[in-house]
Design brief:
The protein is mostly helical. It contains five helices and no strands.
Length: 135
């Protein structure tokens, strides 16, 4: 890995903490639990766990692409496109499992997914801001 890549990894690790997503999800789960019952809280937490699972899959695939493809842009890009398709399939499968197999409430499930995804976008924004500031 190049020096620039190591520097960017350092910036990412400064932002990568869990942040405000878990407390927000737990607070929202408590609200849904009080309003709709414990099944709604489970649905919200399942929606948040879906984002965590696909994020972990993405991180693993990115590390694997760097290891396998190295500095070959075409091979790396091809591998990352495959990763995007795999994440989409996993996300759709988890939604199908949540709605169909587990019969979870739709509103809390989508709310948990949306809150966790917004927290992830916020973290990415913070990370990119740090990269712009520090080169």
């Amino acid at each position: 890995m190049s020096n620039a890549a190591h520097g960017q990894q350092g910036i990412g690790s400064r932002v990568r903490g869990v942040g405000w997503a878990p407390p927000l999800l737990l607070f929202s789960a408590t609200g849904f639990w009080l309003a709709m019952g414990w099944q709604a809280a489970v649905a919200l937490l399942f929606g948040g766990a879906m984002v965590a699972a696909t994020g972990g899959l993405e991180r693993w695939q990115r590390q694997r692409a760097a290891r396998i493809a190295g500095n070959l842009p075409a091979k790396n890009l091809r591998y990352l496109y495959r990763c995007a398709v795999e994440r989409l399939v996993v996300t759709l499968a988890l939604f199908a499992a949540g709605f169909g197999l587990m019969a979870l409430h739709p509103l809390p499930l989508l709310s948990g997914y949306t809150l966790a995804r917004l927290a992830m976008f916020h973290r990415f924004y913070q990370e990119s801001s740090l990269r712009r500031q520090h080169g």
